[in-house]
Amino acid sequence: MTVVIGFEGSANKIGVGIVRDGVVLSNPRRTYITPPGQGFLPSETAKHHRGVILTVLKEALQQAGLKPADIDCVAYTKGPGMGAPLVTTALVARTVSQLWGKPLLGVNHCIGHIEMGRLVTRANNPTVLVIALQDIREERLDRARVRICDKLSRKNLVKLRAKIREISPCFCKPFKTIIVPINYHQNGRHSSGGKLPRTGSNPARVIKISNDPSPGYNIEQMAKRGKQYVELPYTVKGMDVSFSGILSYIEEAAHKMLGSRQCTAEDLCFSLQETLFAMLVEITERAMAHCNSQEVLIVGGVGCNLRLQEMMGTMCKERGARLFATDESFCIDNGAMIAQAGWEMFRAGHVTELPDSWITQRFRTDEVEVTWRD
Question: Which residue range or ranges hold the Gcp-like domain (predicted)?
């Protein structure tokens, strides 16, 4: 039996999870919550994580009924994510690794989401829609692309990767799957205050939606009460989607429309969800068509949104395909997903030496050498 402990702290959640041979033994976490209308600064988020991470670590060991001696490997989120929180998490993981005398392993955040989704749902070879909130300062990505990785030798994969690396946000090798990455980046001072994409301003902040328990959850609940659909820009070009028009429209029109009672905040939340999710469903279906896929797996924090699951499920039903999704316990950032990915990697011979145990804010998924799957 192999037991791996995982530390996740790439954004406003800090979690520690323990996995033993595909069984989640514990998965406690804490969330840094800011007042309505505000995002979370990297430095303040890191300060929050430093204040609670040891408590969360103790909870994880107690809930699992294990001692440090029972752990075989210490995994941590290497990136992508916010610099200061990532550094805090990595420092604790490195310290624990040395104190306990256990191997250390850096894990890609998105790979963690995918491996946890596959573990929980038992999906075989799905098209994966990764909807993750990755707040990376000084970078903004407003589009997503898809790349097909199927029946390519490792030699050819290396050659192909070199050619497309600069234009493909996600090329996972050698996953026999299509990954549609929707990463919400920013280049502003504050990190994102919600689970919807942003370019300079977040809809949750514009509408002053509470951050407790999370803006994304509150947007989903408000959308259920929306009755009027407000037409928003819809931009899909092949496998590329653009959210900038929607967000600019919200920034400029929200207060005016709400002030004149042309619509309600609930109507805006409803319209945002319907438009954004329709775009995601469209490109996911196109990705499925490219490789004749019959499975879809939704992972990442937004993946627990029931309306997104409903819309994706309708598309899958029409295609005779199957939809796989998880609830908030595993969709939202957590330590167990890092532990599970670490478990797969550790058993395949992966280990991160201490001099290499840095963090990478822009850790691309296509930089991961996937050797634990056929």
Answer: 29-131, 202-339
Task: Evaluate whether 340 touches 119 at the Cβ level (below 8 Å).
Answer: yes
| 171 closest CA partner among 206, 147, 141 | 147
Cα–Cα separations (whole angstroms), residue 162 to 168, 171, 361, 367: 11, 11, 21, 11
Tokens of 236: 């899909």
Rounded Cα gap, residues 372 and 119, in angstroms = 14
In whole angstroms, give the CA distance from residue 200 to residue 190: 9
- The radius of gyration of the chain's CA atoms, rounded to the nearest angstrom, is 20
Cβ-contact 30, 14 below 8 angstroms = yes
Closest among 329, 333, 325, 277 to 301, alpha carbons compared: 333
How far is Cα of residue 99 from the mean position of the Cα atoms in its chain?
30
> Residues of 223-250 as b/e, b for ≥16 C-beta within 10 angstroms?
beebeeebebeebeeebebbbbebbeeb
Tokens of 37: 């209308």
Q: Is the dihedral of CA 139, 10, 50, 326 positive or negative?
A: positive
Tokens representing 210 are: 């509470």
pLDDT tens, position by position, 327-373: 888 999 999 999 999 999 999 999 999 999 999 998 888 788 888 88
- pTM here? 0.83
